[in-house]
Amino acid sequence: MEIFAHRGASAAFPENTLLAFEQAIVQGADGIELDVQYHPDGELIVLHDSHLDITTNGQGAYDELGLTELARLDAGNQQKIPTLAQALAQINGRCAVNIELKDAGVAPGRLAAITGLLKQQLEQAIVKENYTWSHFIISSFNHHLLAAVKQKYPKIKTAALIASCPLTYSEFTRALDVCQLNVSIDCLNAALVNDAHDRGLTVGVYTVDRQQDIRRCYALGVDVIFSNAPDKSRDYLKTI
Ligand code: G3P
Ligand code: CA
Predict the structure, then answer these.
(1) For the chain, what are the domain ranges?
(2) In whole angstroms, how far apart are CA 217 and each of 31, 63, 107, 116?
(3) Could you state, in chain order, the average pLDDT of each consecutive group of 10 residues for the chain (240 residues)?
(4) Which residues form the GP-PDE domain (predicted)?
(5) Does 51 participate in catalysis according to the annotation?
């Protein structure tokens, strides 16, 4: 079972910052999960919430500020809000990267803007840094956006995020052509994991920090857990 650092090593360092990503690598994470928002100035930034107050010293919606103003904010421990390009440069292919697209929009123009920027940045990272395509997996709760990513970029791996418990998984996963389901620990069950595996899908589970949850994921054959404390989760996993 692989361990991905959820928002970086976010239990001990400010989430979704270059520091948290670096420390995730130090802690031996197999991959890093990060959250990406589309900024209308034409940039992808790494930020979980649409409001700045939650994780920075800024206020209001992030897209009410320009990129220069955003770059001045403190995201904790003197860290900045990174752009996706900065995050990828920092990680530099040293582990896998699960890029979660946070955008909920479905307007064709917006989907095209996001998928175009994403394609450009991943291609750039592969040319300039130590990545191959297999390093990346794109996830989203917005399945319209996932479909648009896949249409633009058939070779990229995608994962459908689900936070509720659908009765059946078959039709939507086939239509989306995802290779993984990323599910909340709250709707994890054996039938879901077995059904996904029967369809050739891997299963990721978020957010898994408690020992009983790690044990349960392992027993059910989960492929990836997203943990805020990859070091502690790994230590515990070794004892099972
Ligand atoms: O990608 C898994 C998980 O991060 C989804 O929920 O709210 O932590 O982004 P959230
Ligand atoms: Ca996330």
Answers:
(1) 2-239
(2) 17, 37, 37, 35
(3) 98 98 98 98 98 98 98 98 98 98 95 97 98 98 97 95 78 89 95 93 98 98 98 98
(4) 1-237
(5) no
Q: Are 97 and 21 in contact (CB under 8 A)?
A: no
Contact (CB, 8 A) for 30 and 98? no
User: CA-CA distance, 102 to 230, in Å (whole number)?
Assistant: 23
Name the fold adopted by 2-239: TIM Barrel (3.20.20)
Question: Is residue 143 flagged as an active site residue?
Answer: no
CA distance 32 to 25: 8
- Substitution site in 34, 46, 48 for ligand 1 pocket (most atoms within 8 Å of beta carbon): 48
Residues with CB under 6 A from ligand 1: 6, 33, 35, 48, 100, 139, 161, 182, 206, 226
Cα–chain center distance at 125: 17
Separation of CA 159 from chain center: 9
Backbone φ, ψ for residue 93 (5° rounding): 70, 15
* Cβ atoms of residues 239 and 210 within 8 Å: no
The pTM is what?
Answer: 0.98
The whole-angstrom separation of Cα 68 and Cα 59 is 15
